[in-house]
Design goal:
alpha+beta, C8orf32 fold, 3-stranded antiparallel β-sheet, 6 helices, 3 strands, 34% helix, 14% strand
């Protein structure tokens, strides 16, 4: 169902969330469905109309593609429409380029992610990392081999 909804362009957040979580039976299922919808969208291949309003699902995705919006804002908004309590957390993450022992002295490792309250506890969600896609998958090097650094976006 998620993939079917992801192939369509919903005009409003209300329509999108209704289609996504209408059959979900728990809050954790709602959060997982929203996460999966976001991460299945391949912004590297999507084309957007320049006249899209920014306060629509496709407008927000276009903003993410162009660097004026972020995944954590989209996830929080969709959770809000689904009736889930979700917050944005800002901080540092040990992501690409981090080496053990490196201190967080500048903005190189600044990051944001979400926490959503489901099943009686806060769960951390990082849509940005989940939405990465392999590019030219046939050319991806074997584990441990040196190869193209741009194969993951």
């Amino acid at each position: 169902m998620i993939f079917q909804v992801a192939q369509e362009d919903q005009k409003t957040f209300t329509d999108l969330v209704r289609q996504l979580v209408g059959r979900c039976t728990s809050d954790i299922e709602k959060a997982r469905t929203i996460f999966r919808w976001i991460t299945v969208k391949n912004l590297n291949t999507m084309q957007f109309d320049d006249n899209l309003r920014g306060d629509t699902p496709m407008g927000l995705l276009r903003g993410i593609k162009h660097g004026t919006e972020s995944y954590h804002v989209l996830f929080k908004r969709l959770c809000s429409y689904a009736g889930l309590h979700c917050v944005v957390i800002k901080g540092y993450s040990k992501s690409a380029g981090y080496q053990p022992g490196v201190r967080f002295e500048d903005n190189r490792f600044r990051n944001s992610w979400n926490a959503v309250y489901v099943a009686g506890a806060w769960r951390f969600v990082q849509c940005n990392w989940g939405a990465r896609h392999l590019v030219n998958a046939k050319e991806v090097p074997k584990a441990g081999a040196k190869g193209k650094s741009d194969s993951l976006r």
